[in-house]
Structures are given as structure tokens and as C-alpha cells.
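Progress against Task 2.4 (sequence-to-structure conversion) is shown through the following example record, which the project officer requested during the mid-term review.
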Amino acid sequence: MIKTTIKKLKNGLTMVLVEDKSKNQTTAVLTVKYGTKVSHVKVLDEIIEIKPGLAHLLEHTLIENSIYGNVSAYFNNNYVNYNGFTSSKTTYFPIKTIKDFKKHLKVLLDYINVIDFDEEKLEEIKKPIVDEIIRSKDRSYYKFNEAVSLMANNKTKFVGNLGEIDDVLKISVQELKRVHEIMYQPSNQILSISGNFDTDDILKYVEDLYDEYNIPVIEYQILDEEDTCEYEKNEVTIIDEKYDPICSLEYKIDLSGFTKEEKLKIDYYISYFLTYNFSDNSKTYKRVKDEHLSAFSFSCSKDFITRNVLLVRVVINSTEYDKIKSIIQDVFNNIYMDKEYFELWKRESLINIIKREKNHNLIRKSLTNNILDFDIYYNEGIDFIESMSYEEMKNLIERMDFSNYLFAKELKDVNE
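C-alpha cells generated for the chain above:
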């Protein structure tokens, strides 16, 4: 039997617990609501500039210069699967183990909350990160993605999750400690656990640990501007002889006029919309093939870059840039949908929810994402899926403004 509990402790820590004692493995993920997008914060009258790449460097330093030394050695010696990840919005630290879960959970929480960084060690940690930054420039379509990111964020300088070498090399221990005490407070953390454990026991155990940490509360304000849905330009051209021509059309959609429940439904409905219009079985793709515009499939993505801004992107390899742009825009301008296909998609979504409810890890992941993306502290269930309708989907998508777009194309040669 799976038992799900969500609780916010008195220090602000959110706990998502999905107990399933029939399983052998237990997973814990500490998610910090701080990522690479944050560049300026204000504490009292002090404005703190956070250098690009600091969030990623902090993640590495917590692991490699912890109070346990390099915590990798501890986890490896105890057969614990572990890692750390930094994105634009969050930093998270997962562990998976079969035995001694409470012991390993304490190590996870200790090394993230109790720090003692060393300047000399920090310089050693920077070396492989510098190599990682250099290697990142070899990724496929690096120039293309860099240019699209610049335009999407209306920036003049590209800042990826890794940062740039000069910025990373200048980061000091003092800066890491200051950002850690501000951004890693318990109120900015979500601890999600799923698998074989006892809920009441873990709740008390974690609460006692945080009481021992006695982390001070620091009021702060993020000064970075909210993501705007407007693009300074609607088109960008990139020249890169290394890779095949490619183009993308992306939309930033303002959802501030929608409720959080509507946003959750939009997350589902947009998935249907993209699948119906851009899968290999779609009329759109058939047209692209019939007109010999591309031999490749469409690639689609959606991301809530903030709780009020949805980014939808469609990408395909092609040299027929204008025709591809016209075809994609036609889909978003006319909102093509099909009721029969919707009912099939809805049935599949219902099956996925039924399957999810039998998997403690999927329940945990979905709950955590709902909290982060929508400020919703529950999982959508069978009733939620059954309440969805073709008419509601049509109404919600037609309310969305698709006028803010960016078309990007990459050419091998400037003369193309």
C-alpha cells in the first residue's frame, strides 16, 4: 500500500513523502529552489551580485568539499547511488539506497546544510569545471542554442548553466558561503522521499536534524526581472558550417490570467496539441514530407520558465526556412485539433495516471513538479483526467496568446 504525505515543517522545509514498504529501495531528493537564472539578490540594504556559474560551482563544492570530505567516496563505499544537478530554476541532490537509509539521509542533509569550504580545495574543484565549460562548446548546435537563448531572454551576453571560465575563476569561498546561507535556507528546500520507510519516523528524524542545524532565517528579495513574453526581435540567423541547417519556432505565452489549476490542465492540453500537430503521424509532418521540405521529424518541447510564462518550441532540420515557418505558424494561428484523437489521447493519459499511482517514484516526481511549477500541493488523479474535455481544451488554448514568437534558422554559409 502506498501512503502519501505532504508536510511543511515549522522552519519552512517542504516534505513530500511517498511510503511503499513493499519495495526494497528508498529514494531521497533534496531540491533547492535556486538555479542559474538568479543573478542579483537584496538582503536588507545590501545588493548581492551572483556571478554566472556560481550555482553549478556551489553544487560541485557541496559534494567535493563537504564536512565528510568528498562525499562521493562515502556514497560509493556504501553502495549509494547519488548525484547533483543544476538547472536554471533549481539545484537538486538525489540518493538511492537499499539499506541504512536513515544513515545515508543524514549524510545527504548534513553535507548540503552544514558547510566548511576551503579556498585551496575550491581552486582544485574549479579545474574540471573549466574543462566542462570548454567541452560544452563542442555540443551539437551550440551556436544555435546560444543565440536562441540570448534572444529568448533578451540578453546581450549568453550565460549557460555552467557559466563562463572568467566568471567561475573569480568566484571565492566567501561568495559561495554567502549565496548558500541565503538561497539554501530550509524554506527554499523540498525534501522528497519515496520507497521503503516509515513516514512518522522520518518526519520526526528530519525535524530533529534541522533543529540541530538551527539555520538562521535571512529575508531576501530576488532582483532579477521577471521573464517577459516579448522578444526584442522575432527572427535570428546563425551561421555555423559544422552542422546541418536547422530552424525553430518558439512561443512565449503569458499565463498570468489563468488559475494554477488551469495551468496544470494547459500542461496536459499543450502536450496533446503538440503531439496531434507535429508527431510523425500528423498532417503537418505528412505535408513536410510530401513537399520534400525535410527528411527529419519535428522535435517539440514545452517548459514553464516561470509559473506565469510557458515556452513552447518546435524544431526541425531543413533548408526550406520560410516554408517551415509558415507551416508551423499556420498550426498555432488556427489551433488545429480533432475530437476523436483527443478522446484517444485522454484515454492514454488516464492509463498513465493509473500506472503512476502504482509507482512511488513517479508519484514523488509528479508531486514535486506540481509544487515547483504550479504551487499545487497534490497530484492530479483519475477524476482530474476524466474532467478534461475537448471543449475545455479548445477554450483554454484559444485564450492563449501566440503572438510573441522567435524564429531561428542556422545556415552553413552566409550566402545560403
